[in-house]
Design goal:
The structure is a homodimer. Chain A contains 8 helices and 12 strands. Chain A is of the alpha+beta class and about 260 residues long. The longest helix of chain A has 27 residues. At the A-B interface, strand 5 and helix 4 of A face strand 5 and helix 4 of B. Chain A binds a DNA duplex (30 and 30 nucleotides) through helix 7.
Chain lengths: ~260, ~260
DNA sequence: CGTCTGGTTGATACGACTCAAATTTGGTGG
DNA sequence: CCACCAAATTTGAGTCGTATCAACCAGACG
């Protein structure tokens, strides 16, 4: 019944939409609440891989919720350098409140073909006023997203290439685990080495060589868009990975919905 | 009457508390709203320079609002490496909603002697329900803080040492400008070269040499905790600084409070 | 006057980048 | 099902930016 464990041998069930599984890492939801989440997910669209969902300068008209596929937030510099700022996997909201700002200061792009729910601000505020526990869970979601962002700053600022990649792989594995999309140390991994480079502030050449090191050290396997973590304990040690920042140990986690 | 301009020759007035000036970059506040902000700022404390305001692992019991002095958010790794994740200057809130999470995943430390308001969650929610425009402005504040965090990830991930420092100096100058604390390209700058190193992911030795380059190129002066930007235009060019992410051009900026 | 913190300098080492090319993989259409 | 093409991965050689280590210096402070 535990939705997440750090041990790769165990894994979470995947009993429904990723959002539900994800928010239930924070608080148990009632059937009505699950239905409400499903309802706002009915209006969705597909985005082809490598296409932008939102581009810098646009104004957000909807809250996006990733139903399937991976996306990333990125910023591009005038000289063409690109930094992937964040990754979105199923169950992630892209900017619950971004529509407040006049113009996006970055872009959101699809990594794989993407299925995203388009939720209007009105639906969003109806959802949160009607279901306070969902509102609370969305708060938690946003705060965790901010914490992940901070950890990324630390990652590119202080860790070596080897540690950076190790850290990123672990984070992704655990986040997928919390939406029931990783099992036994294994998960989908659609990022190219170029994407990894842009996410870690390295070059793709160096990512390539560093991944080979991680493989040589029997820490991971990574091929055909599939990641297998072979030794999570040691991988966490070398990455100096501290799962605190994912805030998966909330006290409300095991509470049942009261209605 | 414009609260901010990118031209170093101009500067904003500083008509009262930094928070008010800051939030008025987003929306004009009424006298009552200003009073409300002043009221929640009455309960403050001082923190000595170089001491922690909150340490990793603690639970936040208050929202902190910097009234005077500088602080930083930082994370430390087991090997002693430190990354400064964010800077707080007067008018900045530290984590409007952090009390939702069980434990802080980072620390907040004073850079200078610090005067911070301690606002209880209850005061906070009273403030926002009673004054919706303040609630809106706090939203904007949080979204801008998130945008700054993203820009920092880009900064350490993609820019050279020279660009990183240039970018950071500009950001600080502009943020101080929006609370009326910089004028004619000049502002306080209490960070040591060590702090700069931790904020940019460089070593203090390299920061030292790179600052010398920036001085040699007649872009800045920096001594005795005072920064003087000598050529903002050129500095922005070399840093590839795009002020978008500070979201200072909100349409509501020039609106008068309607009550 | 000594001590301490922060800033500066020099010499050397290394992690990561650059450029260029080869190889493999995956998708597409004939 | 195979041929083809583009995208992604891999390899090698050489370079550069930044780190490291170790002094030394200047000003602030008790």
């Amino acid at each position: 019944m535990t939705p997440l464990t750090l041990v790769p041998g165990k894994s979470s069930p995947s009993p429904g939409p990723a959002v539900v599984t994800k928010l239930e890492a924070y608080t148990r939801l009632s059937a009505d609440e699950r239905t409400a989440l499903a309802r706002v997910s009915r209006n969705f669209r597909f985005v082809d891989a490598r296409r932008d969902l939102i581009s810098e300068g646009e104004r957000a008209r909807h809250v996006h919720l990733v139903l399937d596929g991976w996306a990333c937030r990125y910023k591009q510099m005038p000289d063409g350098k690109r930094q992937i700022i964040a990754l979105f996997v199923p169950g992630d909201f892209c900017d619950v409140n971004a529509y407040i700002l006049k113009a996006f200061d970055h872009s959101i792009g699809a990594i794989t073909r993407l299925k995203v729910a388009m939720i209007t601000p009105e639906e969003m505020s109806a959802l949160t006023t009607e279901w306070p526990r969902i509102a609370q869970a969305l708060w938690w979601h946003e705060l965790v997203a901010a914490a992940v962002q901070r950890e990324w700053t630390l990652n590119v600022g202080q860790r070596t290439a080897y540690q950076r990649l190790a850290h990123l792989l672990i984070e992704i594995y655990l986040r997928l685990n919390s939406v029931g999309r990783s099992h036994n140390g294994r998960c989908d991994f659609p990022l190219t080495q170029n994407d990894l480079a842009d996410a870690t502030g390295l070059t793709s050449v160096h990512v390539n060589r560093t991944l080979q090191e991680l493989r040589r050290d029997a820490l991971i396997e990574l091929e055909r868009k599939q990641l297998q973590i072979r030794d999570m304990k040691r991988l966490m040690e070398v990455a100096m990975f501290n799962p605190n920042y994912l805030h998966l140990e909330h006290e409300g986690r095991h509470l049942d919905a009261s209605n």
